[in-house]
Write the structure tokens for this entry.
Amino acid sequence: MCKTNHERIEAVMKKFCIVLLLLALFCGVTSAEDFTLWNIDDMAAPELKPYLKAKSPRVINNETLPALRKALTIPPEKLPKNDRVNVRNEYLPSGLRVRVYTPKIQKPEYPALLWIHGGGHLMGSPEGNEDLSLRIADELGFIVAAPAYRLTPEHPYPADLEDCYAALVWMTENLPVRKDRIAVAGQSAGGGLTAALTLLARDRKYPAIHFQMPLYPMLDYRNITPSSHQINDHRVWCRDFNISAWSEYLADVSGDVPAYASPSMAGNLSGLPPAYIMVGTLDPFRDEIIVYAQRLMQAGVPVELHVIPGATHGFEAIFTDAEMSVKAVNEYVNALKEAMK
């Protein structure tokens, strides 16, 4: 039976509506409400609320940066210790310091982790994650190498990425590591550098990275997602801090921003190592991370993505005693263990 023109038009319109709906779901079409500023005190997980209430707003700029860096510096006598792990500083010919954690149990070769600290490309050091590096070396039996990469604004992109790549190559060639069990991981800016480093190592065809673990990574310089607008509380990493940090980091970039600086710009994500990615719902990076994880999956990369309800940026590293923080760290340490078997 032949369809009338009206029936044909109706069928086409139904298909068109379905396509529009799918596009909205897939591409994240938003409304004005999606960019409304969120009150994180109302939306935070109940166990994080007392920590947030006790936290004061911060100011991060070139004037406050020296004091912030100093506050993050841990005196050697106050660093955590582990009698089952040897810790030493090595220096590359360039002067780059790499902090190395080696299990005292002797093996011909160890699985290896390059750990990249966070801090918005502006601050931080390997010692800031001393407890985690010691734990991974001890519990998992890995060699952990953590570069003290050059910081912005003194050394904008690509200084820190090239430092991390140099540390990765040095670790691969100079430490007793299994060449088929090399992982890269980091938090925040260190997570963004993790993603960038896997792209760089893939394109330079060396070294082979078996696994990546970018934790709440800093990926997209554009700050155009709903979450990048929704979170602007100065007690946590927020829109204002992120815009300023990206501006400093990209100071020497002219023209198009390269994917090695902002991994969200990468056109080809195929051939990258499997990934474990974590982010909280109250993180300004939430949406860019979800999109990046989805694109990795579409490129055929195995991805385990954890979105933690009511969690702020870096919650497990800042509010370390909270039960959900302990759980999150246990989960990603175990994910690293399983991936490197």
User: Anything to note?
Assistant: The chain has a mean pLDDT of 92. The CA atoms of residues 71 and 235 lie 16 Å apart.
